Amino acid sequence: MGGVSVRDVPRILSIAGTDPTGGAGIQADLKSIAANGGYGMAVVTALVAQNTHGVRSVHTPPAAFLREQLDAVSDDVVLDAVKIGMLGSAGVARTVGAWLADVRPPAVVLDPVMVASSGDRLLSRDAEDALRGLLHGVDLVTPNLPELAALLGEEPARGWEQALDQGRRLAGAYDTAVLVKGGHLAGAAAPDALVMPDGGGFTVCEFSSVRVETKNTHGTGCSLSSAVATLFARTGSWVAALGAAKAWLQEALETADLLEVGTGHGPVNHFAGLWRRGLAPLPVSSGTGVPPAGDRTAELWSRTAGVRKEIAALDFVRGLGDGTLDSAVFGRYLAQDAIYLRGYARALARASELAPTLQEQLFWAESARGALEAELELHRNWLHANAGHGGVPGPRDVPADPAEGLAPGPVTRGYLDHLLGTNRHRDDRLEYARLVGAVLPCFWVYADAGAELAAGNHASHPYREWLDTYADPAFAAATVRAVGILEGVLAGNENQRRAAEEAFAQSVQWEHDFFAAG
Ligand SMILES: Nc1ncnc2c1ncn2[C@@H]1O[C@H](COP(=O)(O)OP(=O)(O)OP(=O)(O)O)[C@@H](O)[C@H]1O
Ligand SMILES: Cc1ncc(COP(=O)(O)O)c(N)n1
């Protein structure tokens, strides 16, 4: 253990075994390190043939080769923290111990992996003493309840108080901080506690989270310990690191079911938070529009080329792009758009209600929320900044709901009637197909027009914020998803395909009319 070093993007080494399904072990560590803002490196202790159901076999390369891997890293790279996971055998534990003594990394987190959640042993019994031998030299140990008990040579704690007591005794015996993890306890909470020796006594910090109802918890221990190592190297505080890591893990657990990896205990969703906030790279570069997802959407998209060309040629759209559009005209357009978005969000919520899969249900629900929150926010800001000026009607105090007190124009009403269903189908699958077709142009035509308009955007453009939203990578990412869902719907039966295609074509026309009314 050397001195603490804090870095924006710390260099974190994981020393652990493998999980070819990517949920636990070194693969999970690398994802967790990246998701928490670190640069991840990996030295493999053991190759494990395992999946979400359990461990099939373990191959341990010679200890001398492990040392070569460790030296290859530390001879070259300055390490900000090390996370140690599965060691497997006494020889491996001793080799890692010798390397630690030579290199003395500034922070070491040891996850004392003994038994996988499937019940398979990942540490030979005769290696437990060698593992204990490492405890004196590390900064934080993160045992689950059975591991905590095994390290002390006792029976697993049956309650949280007993677990905390064991944690204090382990921390005292080895003069190291212990993270006591309550993931294995029954109950509505998933409590954890950081037990830190402080010159004779202990400081105990508890972090409790709501237990997530999911069977997909494979690798939570691996992921948490590498997140903590990374966040410690970014903050220099175990308490801050734990708090942030728990919040991150919670989001990863809450969305774990969406991954659908394996049929046993699947992995957590390491990047869920980043993806949700739109930070995943896109299959398209922003500014080029969103491509079709397959043959069916390609065909449908090409059929609307004529109307899209007309949209691009509209005075309103050209004026929006080059900034010459009259602000009073834009203000009136925004007012109608605010009314439209309220109804559009209802159509998206209805699509969520009818969605056949969890992912689609969530996607439409989030899109509905996005339409209400992000877009109305933009409306409010613009109306607030411009109301009473340049002929823009309305008071300077824009109500929380920018659509309040406004009457829909004929085009807005017509488009919303189309979306919300004067021609609803009784059959849910058919109605879903119609809705997906109907809501898509507001994603796709906008992302397409947005990409084109954004080309002329600049810092002092009067509609800069507006153009930014529609050329936003997160909006393009959502559009990619939506187009993918449409492709799936078009692959349904003849009736579903026709309903989606007709609704799509009508909505493209409504998009045209909406801009034209502006
Ligand atoms: N269902 C859950 N909901 C919320 N948090 C959970 C849940 N299961 C585990 N956790 C949290 O995940 C972390 C790991 O806890 P756990 O006690 O399961 O460790 P572990 O057994 O080492 O993990 P692993 O599943 O990798 O073996 C802890 O922070 C714990 O509170
Ligand atoms: C290589 C490796 N390291 C650790 C675990 C523990 O994770 P879990 O208890 O979730 O199976 C594992 N299964 N594989």
Automatic annotation (TrEMBL):
Pyridoxamine kinase/Phosphomethylpyrimidine kinase domain span: 19-269
SUPFAM superfamilies xref list: Heme oxygenase-like, Ribokinase-like
EC number in record: 2.7.1.49, 2.7.4.7
Reactions catalysed: 4-amino-2-methyl-5-(phosphooxymethyl)pyrimidine + ATP = 4-amino-2-methyl-5-(diphosphooxymethyl)pyrimidine + ADP; 4-amino-5-hydroxymethyl-2-methylpyrimidine + ATP = 4-amino-2-methyl-5-(phosphooxymethyl)pyrimidine + ADP + H(+)
MF term (GO), any: phosphomethylpyrimidine kinase activity
The keyword ATP-binding is assigned to this record: no
Domain Thiaminase-2/PQQC: 315-516
Keyword entries, A-Z: Kinase, Thiamine biosynthesis, Transferase
Pathway participation: Cofactor biosynthesis; thiamine diphosphate biosynthesis; 4-amino-2-methyl-5-diphosphomethylpyrimidine from 5-amino-1-(5-phospho-D-ribosyl)imidazole: step 3/3
PANTHER family registered for this protein in UniProt: HYDROXYMETHYLPYRIMIDINE_PHOSPHOMETHYLPYRIMIDINE KINASE THI20-RELATED (PTHR20858:SF17), PHOSPHOMETHYLPYRIMIDINE KINASE (PTHR20858)
Name of protein: Bifunctional hydroxymethylpyrimidine kinase/phosphomethylpyrimidine kinase
